[in-house]
Amino acid sequence: MTNNTTNSSNHGISQAQLDAHWMPFTGNREFKKDPRIIMSAQGNYYTDANGRQIFDGLSGLWTCGAGHARPEITAAIATQAATLDYAPAFQFGHPKSFELAHRITQLMPDGLNRVFFTGSGSESVETALKIARGYWRKQGQASKTRFIGRSKGYHGVNYGGISVGGLSPNRAIFGQGIEACHLPHTMLSENKFVQGMPSKGGYLAEELEQLIAVYDASTIAAVIVEPLAGSAGVIPPPVGYLKRLREICNKHNILLIFDEVITAFGRMGANTGAAEFGVTPDLMTVAKQLTNGVIPMGAVIAKQAIYDTYMETGGPEYMLELPHGYTYSAHPIACAAALASLDILAKENLAERVKTIAPYFQESLHSLKGCDHISDIRNYGLAGGITIEAFGTEQGKPEPGKRPYEIAMKMWQKGFYVRYGGDTIQLGLPFTCTLPEIDSLMNALGETINEVN
Ligand SMILES: Cc1ncc(COP(=O)(O)O)c(C=O)c1O
Prior knowledge:
By secondary structure, the chain is of the alpha/beta class.
């Protein structure tokens, strides 16, 4: 049942309109009782329907590190829309996609130099998994189809992504995905409250040898991990861990995929997590910060040997080598937005700026230790995660998501947007944030965490 009543507290949005939109990753029933409506954004702030300024403590969804409403991006989009609004993505090209692909390769670690465009992080993951399987088939090793993900990993919401992902609520109701098994996560109790990369836990990479012993390398296409797990609540890699994964993959002829949908283009204080942590994968997935979140776009960046394998086995030259792609792959307006966005990152040295202010952010974040309910704090670059102890109900059944939800809602009322997910509060500050903004966010957060029961 819907009705058309416009509830004044719904800011001019009728109940029928509210009902019509099935919102993603949202408690629809709760949201629609008291909608949080954002009307505009500028710099590091949103303006809500009541005209309140709200600090963007997660850069959108880890997307808008350069701040909102950047005129350079807006202008690039307008010009592109007026010049070439769309070009068929298959069999035809337009100049900006090639310029952007080349620009992206310049920001990658050496060796990652072939770019396939997608429309989102989930599509990037799906594309990388398919490229990996296809690569082995083309190499004459068609049995290499299994993937190894990691517990607490998030790789988007498509079937491949939820299969390799390690967050069970995202898969529980959807049934069979693709063949995947999982490494243990690296969130060790002895690493609680460690600042930056934990020194303990590198040995957990050896678990990969165990999985290979069980399944055999002849059945495994690739290992996929986020260099820093974001959506699980910011889990930086232990020292030596990624390097060891790389060594084991090399030893057994297994591809290594880094899902850098959150970590690429500045958030770690470098162009990529791979560069920051000193380990180069065979395939990398990116999205989010690529266009500063302004227009959906993702990409997979591959080592040349993978691309060359497809070309060499592609049959007659008029044939397509990879039967895969999206209507919106390399969309001209997304390419224009990405070029403008990468220009801003370069001109304003934003990755460098992240590195410079990260120690202040780290200290400020960890000063929350000692607030009620906090059982762990983690950080790297301008990413931070706080674990909140589960709220026990009268029946004794813990509700890990309840306190983080209450904290995030109270923060919103106080003029700060932070993300809650599972038993964590997540922070992904704009690269352009100031030190006083960090102070006021942390002050409000500490006070709010102490306020919840
Ligand atoms: C590491 C990682 N991979 C994939 C995705 C999915 O991206 P999208 O929501 O654009 O499909 C996300 C989104 O947060 C992510 O963090």
